[in-house]
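Its record is set out here:
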Amino acid sequence: MTVLVVSDSHGRQADLDRVILQVRPDIIYHLGDAQGYENEIRTGCGVPFFYVRGNCDWGSDAPLYQVTKLGNHKVFLTHGHMYNVKYSNYELIKAAQERGCDVALYGHTHFPELVEADGMTVMNPGSISLPRQPGRIPTFATIDVDKDGELHFTINELKP
């Protein structure tokens, strides 16, 4: 099974549509800031879709976080702005641990990251539309779940 993880599409659907066609995921996790397009994505993607509200999702009634089971793991999904992720992952990791999770996925910084910290896998897919890292190439992530329920994380660049 493959999970597509994206964040910060900010209403720019063309790159997200390309990635969905390229990856052909079984599940999509969108970590916020779709800016009103989350229902369009949900109805158009054809797979289970998990969405959390970001700081630019004005008027959205989406939750600020979700906890989901994936393989043998519990995953904490959030945008990150409520946990000061621009400064450190400390509050994010603490929130995920309090909910019994061993994986924390977040967005908000527009900067991809994959680290292990305090027994937690922490991943930010970066931004599919407005990247901020050097080179400014749009990024997304995939999580492959193997037959034993273990997770394999990859951050990918969107090629032109």
About this structure: The longest helix spans residues 13-23. The chain has a mean pLDDT of 95. The longest strand covers residues 139-145. The two ends are 26 Å apart (CA to CA).
